[in-house]
Amino acid sequence: MDGRAKLVDNALASGKIYEGEGFKYINKCFEAGTFHLIGLLSDGGVHSRLDQLQLLLKGACEHGAKRIRVHILTDGRDVLDGTSLGFVQTLENDLVKLREKGVDAQIASGGGRMYVTMDRYENDWNVVKRGWEAHVLGEAPYKFRSAVEAVKKLREETNANDQYLPPFVIVHENGKPVGPIVDGDAVVTFNFRADRMVMLAKALEYEDFDKFDRVRFPKIHYAGMLQYDGELKLPSHYLVSPPEIERTSGEYLVHNGVRIFACSETVKFGHVTFFWNGNRSGYFNQEMEEYVEIPSDSGITFNVQPKMKALEIAEKARDAILGRQFHQVRVNLPNGDMVGHTGDIEATIMACKAADDAVKVILDAIEQVGGIYVVTADHGNAEDMVKRNKRGEPLLDKNGNIQILTSHTLHPVPVAIGGPGLLPGVRFCKDVPDGGLANVAATVMNLHGFEAPSDYEPTLIEVADN
């Protein structure tokens, strides 16, 4: 489970969340204003979790919230497409119970996570703008009397899947929105994961903002579930204190004279920089590091251009390797994941081919300089594109068509280590039964000739005694 999710679970279970500075800051608005919650509505557990939202709603009411509006982003990416309707119904049932207790609680707006609000790495500010218009201004091309009706009708009428539902607002009989965000309101973004909340946090918090015309900038008390960027101190108020992720492998290696080059395209750039370095932006030492971001295609779904920027990333990596200025070259090729999420099998095959071609360019360069490579993935996606039953047989929908799987898979991912620079006798350890991504840090440190800190997960390699 995600460490951030666990922090939130503990804070909710112990009640500590309601004693913290962040909640007290929000709480000040409960008497006269509305309490708004914005976030991803699913039990996927990657960015948020429905049960955490449910507990927060209950707790807020026990601590004086009288008027609540929830702004929902439908998932279909970390969970199966089509499940959003069920999550909305669950939330609606909870809100009915709160209304029976005298709390004015309703869903106010929404949209699909990839089209509304949850952009990342400043790839496409229009995504956040659509969210701002729906959540804050109460304006959207589609208006409905209930969120259940919104999700049902939009899926049918626009043929969009959960990830790409257009923005909608819920309105009263007179057509007025039920829950725009106005002066004196409190707002919490309830995602615990940072990357898809930073942009909205900037729009909600920064007085000085030029990414799109906000039309109006309400004077609100805003808090994140956690702080989303420690360097930017954003947001300045948060409900749960973030963990300090200290002594990451990148920091350790840079301080020990290892020069590092990192590159990806926009959609995964943070994965080889910000996340990699323990949720901090910027360099550890600018003299020792170079980070290159290649702009991703924006305004299209990734199956339209399934090759994405794989070749460009590979060429940057190749040049960095052949230039012999760096000891470590780190890249992320997003194709299998990003195109896999679209559920388009033909495009995904092209995406995997593009990633393969890119890997070959990089491995050829490694061969030329006598280096070592480590190739792995953080999770699966493209290798299985259909939903299956317990026996592994594809599931069919009511029309007899195979049901498409757009979410990540839980199959083991491969790890390959090799290259002419690998010393004879280096082999995989036999005794790391739970080997996973966490073991890669110590492994890479060993390949650079360092022993990993003792509290790291163990290395995947050993040297055979010949």
What would you say this structure looks like, in words?
The protein is of the alpha/beta class and 466 residues long. The chain has helices spanning 3-14, 21-27, 50-62, 84-100, 125-135, 147-158, 198-205, 249-255, 266-272, 310-322, 335-340, 345-369, 440-447; strands spanning 35-41, 67-74, 104-112, 142-144, 168-170, 186-189, 221-224, 260-265, 289-294, 328-331, 373-375, 416-418, 426-428, 461-463. β2 (67-74), α4 (84-100) and β3 (104-112) form a beta-alpha-beta unit. The protein is globular.
Shape: globular
Roughly what is the average pLDDT, rounded to an integer? 95
- Care to count the β-strands? 14
Share in β-strands: 5-15%
| Low confidence ranges | none
Short structural description:
This protein is α/β, with parallel strands linked by helices and 466 residues long. It contains 13 helices and 14 strands.
Features of the shown structure:
single chain, 466 residues, alpha/beta, seven-stranded mixed beta sheet, three-stranded parallel beta sheet, globular
Task: Draw up the topology in text.
Layout: H1 3-14, H2 21-27, E1 35-41, H3 50-62, E2 67-74, H4 84-100, E3 104-112, H5 125-135, E4 142-144, H6 147-158, E5 168-170, E6 186-189, H7 198-205, E7 221-224, H8 249-255, E8 260-265, H9 266-272, E9 289-294, H10 310-322, E10 328-331, H11 335-340, H12 345-369, E11 373-375, E12 416-418, E13 426-428, H13 440-447, E14 461-463
Parallel strand pairs: 1-2, 1-6, 2-3, 4-5, 6-7, 8-9, 8-10
Antiparallel strand pairs: 3-5, 11-12, 13-14
Helix pairs in contact: 3-4, 4-6, 10-12
